[in-house]
Amino acid sequence: MSKKVTVIGAGISGLATAYWLQKDGFDVTVVESRSEPGGAMQTSSEDGFLVDFGPNSGLETTPLISQLAEEVAIKNEMIYANESANKRYILKNNSLLPLPTSPPAFFTSKLFSTKAKLRLMKEPFVGKSADGYYQSIADFVRRRLGNEFLDYAIDPFVSGVFAGNPEKLSVKSAFPKLYRLEELYGGLIKGLIKGAKERKRRSEDSKQSAKMFSFINGMQSFPEAVAQKLKNVIYNFNVDQISRTGEKYLIKSTDGSSIESDVVLSTMPAYNLSGKLDNFDEDLAGHLNDVYYPPVMVLYVGFKKDQIGQPLDGFGYLIPSKEEKIFLGAIWSSTIFPNRAADDSASFTIFIGGARMANVFDKNEDMLIDDVISEFKKIMNATGNPIFQKKQMWNKAIPQYNLGYIEHENYFDKFEKENPGFFIGGNFRGGISVGDCVKNSELIFNKIKSFAVVHSFSREGANTQNKDS
Ligand SMILES: Cc1cc2nc3c(=O)[nH]c(=O)nc-3n(C[C@H](O)[C@H](O)[C@H](O)COP(=O)(O)OP(=O)(O)OC[C@H]3O[C@@H](n4cnc5c(N)ncnc54)[C@H](O)[C@@H]3O)c2cc1C
Q1: What integer pLDDT is reported at residue 456 of this predicted model?
Q2: CA distance 289 to 8
Q3: Residue spans per domain, the chain
Q4: At 41, is the secondary structure helix, strand, or coil?
């Protein structure tokens, strides 16, 4: 008899794993509390503006993304960022300065002082550090590259990726590849050179060189296309309780329905999973509850192009905390990808809050939005009011891989060993980017496949070939 796999969560992590499981002959059902697929990937289209409230793009750090898009018949809608998106700005003293992307540009850049530039030259001679799991990205960068590099490159970068606080994020858990450069090669500059050769061999792209992608109708069309290929997806199934009964798992919904399953993969956010565990050891809930997700507001604004005085020739800008503004930065959405705004208009996605500015939400929301728009207009040299405006509040946006996160990661590994058939996935394990979620989905698919072999699952019409072949 074929055994059942239930995947909780129809975000990209759950859907990608479910797709590969189904392709491999597993009897798989996805349950999702919302009425549509996508999770954090949410797109809406209104008045000629296409709004991505979650990720605006992904980096193609693995060939799996294209392969999956091809297989779910959405590859023809996959688009790559305009060349100009390579240019990124950093706000310094109220001016937008381009982030240098080559050594000559770095040495002529106004973003860093001569002292900071000379300091960078010392980097290859800085020794290795103590355990990176308990070392913040801020400490790591301060030590290797100096304070200014931390303030005007890494601090805004950390905001852009995690909406995080660099003093709290663990360098090894949150930026494993960066830490690995030091661990393996003794430094960042040496490592960047040698690492590029290794990646070429593995046909993987680094985050610096990976192409930025989206879909013509927005990021949500990707999970939608994956979901359409799945035979069993149950929406509006709000998991209320998961319990273990012998070798099986019982997944109960708030509406009283339930599914018994041999394998369960949860891709719910950590804070959601923590409250659903019935007869498991209480430590798991403790670890899950400890994962901090800061609040982030995404404010999308549209203007007529002739209202904007700043040339729209880049990805957008990030704001270092030193600059003391009330938002984190803005993506110039319609410059990066087509179909985001009408030809005579421009659209921008502004990020507010995050781990280091969670207290901005103490302010009245309308006043906060007015203040953000007025600050944004000053920076963009814009006139008049936005012709379009939409917002989404993510009360718990992105999991922070903070200092000591390894203890959670080790616990999740231990829990899976002690509860065979229960797998924990989602963006709080193994990376938060869309690319990392897809890579991890494949890892989990392989773990479930190995589990099935050990437990003699029969798979109907099982495709015994490796999915990559
Ligand atoms: C504002 C924002 C901007 C981002 N920008 C980028 C970016 O530019 N580039 C990038 O690469 N990444 C970005 N990310 C990160 C990336 O989008 C996410 O990490 C990724 O999409 C998470 O996918 P997931 O499937 O792991 O989790 P989710 O997408 O969160 O999916 C989890 C699913 O579980 C469901 N669920 C929760 N509770 C239950 C329950 N009780 N029962 C049933 N189902 C439940 C949820 O409804 C959801 O559909 C961003 C994230 C946010 C929030």
Answers
A1: 80
A2: 18
A3: 4-41+218-280+419-454, 100-202, 294-394
A4: coil
Task: Give the pLDDT of residue 460.
Answer: 65
Q: Whose CA is nearest to atom 52 of ligand 1?
A: 54
Q: How many CB atoms lie within 10 A of CB 84?
A: 14
- Ligand 1 center from residue 301 Cα (angstroms): 22
**pLDDT for the residue numbered 461:** 56
Order the strands of the 239-245 sheet from edge to edge. 239-245, 248-253, 258-261
Residue 28: strand pairing partners: 5
Domain at 294-394: CATH code:
3.90.660.20
Block means of pLDDT (10 residues each) for the chain, 469 residues, are: 90 98 97 98 97 97 97 98 93 96 90 94 87 91 94 95 96 92 87 75 65 97 98 98 94 97 98 92 92 98 98 97 97 97 98 97 97 98 98 98 96 95 97 97 97 81 44
Atom of ligand 1 nearest to the CA of 434: 11
Class for the domain spanning 100-202: mainly alpha
Cβ of 393: how many Cβ atoms within 10 Å? 15
User: Cα–Cα distance between 87 and 76 in angstroms, integer?
Assistant: 26
- The CATH number of the domain covering residues in 4-41+218-280+419-454: 3.50.50.60
Pairing of strands 263-266, 345-353: unpaired
Ligand 1 atom showing the smallest separation from residue 37 Cα: 49
Pairing of strands 4-8, 212-215: unpaired
